Every structure is written in structure tokens, then in C-alpha cells.
């Protein structure tokens, strides 16, 4: 009975086998057992994706799924290959989540809080990067002095902007009537002729 069922559904299995083979090849390529650098992995991935694009008709009714897979894979491509060039950079979302989870756990232990500090929203883009980078290796004062002052000032400006937005939200939550009255007064001053 099983062999009869397999024979009768043989045409349905072919697209599944083709799609599985392509996805398995992508996974093997990203495993990078050959220890290639990011450019080589990217080049091989581009070749494989082009072939999948050309031959996705072979996948039958799974062609739309292959099209979606190609679209999503291409959207991730700009950040997908750095892990092959930088030692210690997590390769998967799970690895990244574990890395950030360890940082959050460390922050909770240091502060004694049950949740991550609220400064994570404002300064997380800097704090997390600095914490993770210093886990990989330490930086000398000379290395830190080579940072572009304009880039540093730009980051500081962004952080101040985010902090200002958070402060505004807190002012609104504490006293919405006062906040809105001040906002209305500023608006009326702008609308008056000079």
C-alpha cells in the first residue's frame, strides 16, 4: 500500500525534493566548512541564488515559496557575510540573541534590577556595541584616540536627541495638561507676526 501511494504521488514529491536540495545547499554554503572569507561566500551565494531564480519553475507549485525565500535572503544579504571576516562575531540570530541575553543578564546582576535598565532604549546602540567589543578584545588609549571626532559628535548628538525625546515623553506622562499647554503656547508664538 505504501509503495502504491508513493508511486501515485511521485510527481508531487519532485518539487519538494528540488526545493529541499536548494535550501540544503544554501545551509551548507552558510556553514562554510571550507573557512572561506565573506567575499567568497557572498559570491557563491549570489551564484546559487541566481540559479534558483532561473530554475524556480522546476519547483512547481513551490515556486512562490522559492521566490519568497530569494526575496528574504537578498534582504538579509548586506549583513549576512560579516561573520566570515570577523572572528567571534555570532553567525545566527540565535547566537546574537544569546549574546545580547548575556549582556542583559549582566546588566540585571550589576544593577540589582529584574529588568534591563531603561537607558538601554536611549544608549543601547552604544553601550551594547562597546560591551561586546570589549569582550572580544581590549582597546588601548591610542586606538580609542583614532576615532573621528565628527563621527563621535554625531553619535553624541543622536544620543542627546533620543534622550530629549524620552524626557518629553516622561513630561507628558507626568502632567499631560501642563505639557499640552506649553506646546500650545509655543505654537501660538510661532503663528504670531514678528
What would you note in describing this structure?
The chain has 194 residues and is mainly alpha-helical. It has 9 helices and no strands. α2 packs antiparallel against α3 (38-55) and α3 runs antiparallel to α4.
Q: What's the assembly state of these chains? A: single chain
Tell me the overall shape.
extended
* pLDDT < 50 runs, ≥5 residues: none
Number of helices: 9
What structural class do the secondary elements suggest? mainly alpha
Which key phrases capture this entry?
194 residues; mainly alpha; 3 domains; 9 helices; extended
Task: Quickly describe the structure.
The protein is mostly helical and 194 residues long. The protein has helices spanning 2-8, 10-31, 38-55, 63-80, 93-111, 119-136, 141-145, 149-174, 176-191.
Record the SSE blueprint.
Elements: H1 2-8, H2 10-31, H3 38-55, H4 63-80, H5 93-111, H6 119-136, H7 141-145, H8 149-174, H9 176-191
